[in-house]
Amino acid sequence: MQDTIYKNLFAELIKNKLPLLRRVAVNIVNSPADADDVVQNALLRAWDKRGSFSGKTDALSAWVVKIVISESYNFLRKKSHREKVLQYFSPETPEENTALEALDAAITQLPELYRDTIHIALLSNLTIEESSRILGCSPNTLYQRIHKAKNMLREIIRRNADE
Amino acid sequence: MNEELLEKLLKEKKNQVYHFGQSEEDFIAGFMEKIDHRPQKIHFWRYAAIFAAVIGITVLALTSMSGKTVPTSEITTHKSVATNNAPGKSFDPMQESLRLFGDEVAILFVGNDLVIGERMNTESPSNVLNVKLTNNIELKIACADNDSISVNAPGVSGNVIVSRSDRQTLVLDVDLFIQGKRINTQIPVDNSKDIRMHS
Question: Which of A1, A48, A117, B117 could form a disulfide with B106 if both were Cys (CB 3.0 to 4.6 A apart)?
Answer without folding.
Answer: B117
